[in-house]
Amino acid sequence: MRINELLRLVWINTLQNKFRVMLTSLGIIVGTTTIVLVAAIGQGAKNDAEAQYSGLSADTVFVNLDYKQMDGSFDTTKLEKLSEELMEHMRDENAYIKKICIRSETSAEIGVSGKKEYMSVAGVSQEYSEVLSLDFYSGGDFSEDDFEDGERVAVLGYVLAEKLFGNADMANGKRIKIADNNFKVIGVLKRNADGLQGMNYDETVYIPYKSMQECKIGKDYTVPQITAKITSIKFVKKAMQKMRGTMDFYMQHSASYSLEDAGSRIETATKSARTMSALLISVAMIVLTVGGIGIMNVLFVTVKERTKEIGILKALGSPERDILLQFLAESVSIGIIGGMVGLLAGGIGLWALKFSGMPLAPTVSGFVTAFVFAVITSAVFGFYPAYKASRLKPVDALSYE
Q1: CA dihedral (295, 298, 300, 302) positive or negative
Q2: Residue 74 pLDDT more than 70?
Q3: CA–CA distance, 202 with 47 (Å, rounded to integer)
Q4: CA atoms within 13 A on the CB side of 4
């Protein structure tokens, strides 16, 4: 049977049973749409996780309060706190540490031109910008004297500078009031992605750590955190062991704090994104399988209804291969139609989801994969009914089982 003749027969049968084809293809449509959506959602989640950690390398180590050691209490007022002295001991005793900083973050009232609003304020030590991978948009960083003397100077996140002055370019040299203390803005950071450790780099005021202490801006419940850059990824574990040893020696309750490396966080975040993506795709595969079973059922009914036609074709000498190809082509056509409609529905769904704020990353490969799976599913589930049709004898036209 020639290809054009085969396509003509498939087209005629599709038109004659268009409502049945539409209903049968619903499972394929839903499955294809689901694959398009979950592929975009999964990739979006993975990209979002990678973007969140893009400012950090795997050689970064964090020292944070371990809330699991708090026995359900969140009262940190009497907790032994990390200090600059402890940070310096870590630096002196650990040859694996390249850069290290301490920061203490709280919220405080920020005043500019009579306007007041509570914002995030972070007291930081030297090397904070290198450790946190922060770049400057304008102005400059704190000097060594600023840190040692506790000067009343501040660096603003880009978004905060725009919020306070209308334009980030106008922030340098201006004065802001932080909890009744006047500070001079000396720099503005470049726009950053959301930071780690609960810190939004773009909407934070940075001041020297000593200035924060002297102005009593930090609350009693504020818990400082230490972040260190290690000389090489291969020394991260050894560096963490030495940091733990320093904490155990100089602190009475060092067990209240945990050490964690960024590499583990990055791996955990991306692994979670991949797991979620695999789970969603598994759901899509189940939907497609259900759609394929629907195709199989309908084709069995179609074969039963067309036994006389098959018997006549056999009596006229049509080979089994032509009959198998005809029914298989009809099955695949359902997959093609359902797949194309599913791609369209998936595109509309992605357009609607973007207004929800969900991280999405639609890709050409996602659309291609969805369509290929739709066609393959229809071919696989349509093969057995097509095979049964091709094996009918002319005498079976009146007694098909």
Answers
A1: negative
A2: no
A3: 20
A4: 0
171 burial (CB, 10 Å; 0-12 / 13-18 / 19+) is buried
On the 0-12 / 13-18 / 19+ scale of CB atoms within 10 A, 261 is: buried
The span from the CA of 298 to the CA of 331, in Å, is 10
Q: How far apart (Å, rounded) are the C-alpha atoms in residues 343 and 368?
A: 9
pLDDT, mean over the chain: 82
- Which residue is listed with tokens 């490969």? 365
Q: What are phi and psi of 319, to 5 degrees?
A: -70, 155
pLDDT bucket at 10, cuts 50 / 70 / 90: low
What is the C-alpha radius of gyration for the chain, rounded to an integer number of angstroms?
Answer: 33
pTM of structure: 0.59
Closest CA to 135 of 80, 54, 41, 242: 54
